[in-house]
Specification:
Distance between the termini: 32 Å
Shape: globular
Order of helices and strands: EHHEEHEHEHEE
Strand content: 25-35%
Oligomer: single chain
Number of strands: 7
Structural class: alpha+beta
Number of helices: 5
Largest sheet: 7 strands, mixed
């Protein structure tokens, strides 16, 4: 069983462990990016702790924005939260969601994502919509997001530069909370 809680800077190494095991090296965020999010995006970063082993099995990071931005540059790896984050923004941008491989394929991701959305609805006062960007190749993730009420906003062609030399589109998805 996984317990969700607000992440702290002390969770940084565990978050990086998940990041390195859940994503291709070409799309992994740097430690400094997670440090920024943990320090400046208060209550927007959560971890999922295995209640039996104590292992951080996954995480979600988010930022609050004033509006939904339809510009690929705002979603690039390593973007600074100082450029977009606003503590009282009405848009929640889910910047990253990952679960360790050994927890994948068991329906946990879908349950966690539903729990994440419910948590943000309850705790992020003033949020009117949630946005996220997903790689077109991640069919299972897109299915989870669609089932959670997210729909296509736009596609950024060749957004992701994969380590095998291919490029895949980024799909911007949104869920209105109104």
């Amino acid at each position: 069983m996984l317990k969700m809680r607000v992440a702290t800077l002390a969770d940084r190494d565990a978050i990086m462990h998940v990041e390195h095991h859940a994503f291709d090296v070409s799309i992994q965020e740097k430690e400094s990016v997670f440090e920024q999010r943990l320090q400046y995006c208060k209550n927007c970063c959560l971890v999922f702790e295995d209640t039996v082993t104590g292992v951080i099995a996954g995480y979600v990071t988010a930022e609050r924005w004033k509006t939904c931005i339809i510009d690929a540059k705002s979603y690039t790896l390593g973007h600074s939260v100082f450029d977009t984050h606003c503590d009282d923004g009405s848009v929640l941008y889910i910047s990253s969601f990952a679960v360790l491989p050994e927890y994948q394929g068991k329906g946990i991701g879908s349950t966690l994502f539903t729990d994440i959305i419910d948590w943000f609805i309850d705790h992020a006062i003033g949020i009117t919509e949630i946005v996220l960007l997903v790689n077109e190749a991640w069919v299972a993730a897109r299915h989870i997001y669609s089932n959670a009420g997210f729909s296509l906003v736009c596609t950024f062609p060749s957004f992701f530069n994969n380590s095998d030399g291919t490029h895949t589109a980024g799909i911007l998805m949104r869920r209105s909370l109104q």
